[in-house]
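Sequence in, structure out.
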Amino acid sequence: MTYSFNFRDVFNNIDLLLVGMGYTLQLSLITMVLGLLIGVAMALVRTWGPTPLRWLAASYVEVIRNTPLLVQLFIIFFGLPSLGLRLSAEQAAVIGLSVNLGAYATEIVRAGIEAIHKSQVEAGLSLGMSRLQVFRYVVLFPALRVIYPALASQFILLMLATSIVSLIAAEDLFHMAAFLESRTFRSFEIYLVVTGLYLVMALSFRALFAVIYHLAFERR
């Protein structure tokens, strides 16, 4: 069987893919920031919070990490309107991905906090510092250095996972590819180009994180 490759229709509509790629990058950056903030907050609660809040944080982590991201997105986008809360596809995508990343970031950050020797924390507390001050001035930087590689890998996995938001009609790269495929029927060519674009984004993020690590940790 022979197949005649034809990338003309793909490159004639490359602007659509670039728009989707731009949205994917924007969505990834927003959810990385929000997910990290959630992860840090939940890690602090799980480490130093009162028992009831520790249980709530642990339940959040276990529920999110042990259920499919697609189900979580569908609950937010299709389920919440039944309760009177209607969100756009973009809003649902940001919330769903941020909450999902936050659960994984919680455990990564918590591991970094627990890697800091307790004597350092106790020394800070003995000097009259609050737990928040101890975290900021004693724990944060060494913990970030320990968890940075795992956190960077999780961020890249998040970027690749953004393709799932196309199922709730968010106009990411994969959504644009599916739209273009429905008009040109050049499935192989389109998804081959899309694969290359995702690869470029992943390698770009990896290089960016490597530079940040060098500037923040190796030069100190």
